[in-house]
Write a structure and sequence with these properties.
mainly alpha, flat
Length: about 80
Amino acid sequence: MDKSEFLNPKSPYYGQVKPEKLVFNSNLQEFVVGIGYICGLETNGKISPSEAYAQIHSLWEQLENSKHQLGIGDC
């Protein structure tokens, strides 16, 4: 296992296999890793709570945009 795999682990996808769902799953896993880093930085005093909030909010918007672009959850 190299350092990249250790720092950014990926879990297999168990849902219905469709390209857009695989891409969204990958985006979701990247979102979770990003949240972990931001929380660690804030907990250790490297960034302020307001900066952590802003970064998390930005990640959330990116995830929502990818969901809409991929058509996930549209009825």
